[in-house]
Amino acid sequence: MPPPPRFSPIQLRSADGDSRRRRANARGVGLFELLIALTLVGVVVGLGAPSFHQIALNARRAEQVNALLLALHLARSTAILRADPVVVCKSRGGRQCANDASAWSDGWLVFANRDRDSPPRVDAGETILAIQPRTEM
């Protein structure tokens, strides 16, 4: 038995001649449809951009809060393990505590305060456990 004859899908559809006429009339997207679609995309992006900014700002805030909580947990666990006082203080440069009215966003410092000085100061022989640099909001 001979194999069935092979016809391409185009030959089968064009047997009636109707699809050739449809292909000749179909020319793609017109300029008017393209302008309407671009206008709709612009409106959606314009409405969504402010909310994306707020989401990014909230994510940065959460990151900073989590970093401070991590520093507090580190200080607590290290103080328990070493049986020494551990200090978390505001710091601008990451070398000494800032004893003025600086903000926590300027950074902070975690260190073992063996000599228990007050206000806390990093002295020779005291280990700096963590430094958080300045963060921008």
Residue runs with pLDDT of under 50 for 5 or more positions: none
Determine the structural class based on helices, strands and strand pairing: mainly alpha
Q: Strand order, main sheet: write it out.
A: 1-2-3
**Major pleated sheet:** 3 strands, antiparallel
N-to-C CA distance: 80 Å
What order do the SSEs take from the amino end to the carboxyl end, as H and E?
HHHEEE
Percentage of residues in strands: 5-15%
Helical content stands at 40-55%
Q: Over all CA atoms, what is the radius of gyration?
A: 34 Å
Report the average pLDDT across residues: 83
Q: Supply the number of helical segments.
A: 3
- Shape assignment: elongated
Describe the 3D structure:
With 137 residues, the protein is mainly alpha-helical. Helix content is 47%, strand content 11%. It contains 3 helices and 3 strands, in the order H-H-H-E-E-E. Strands 1-2-3 form a 3-stranded antiparallel sheet, covered by helices on one side. The longest helix has 52 residues, at 31-82. It is elongated and about 95 Å long.
Descriptive labels:
137 residues, 3 strands, three-stranded antiparallel sheet, elongated, mainly alpha
Any chance you could write out the topology, listing elements then pairs?
Layout: H1 9-13, H2 18-25, H3 31-82, E1 86-90, E2 108-112, E3 128-132
Antiparallel strand pairs: 1-2, 2-3
Describe the structure concisely.
The chain has helices at 9-13, 18-25, 31-82; strands at residues 86-90, 108-112, 128-132. With 137 residues, it is mainly alpha-helical.
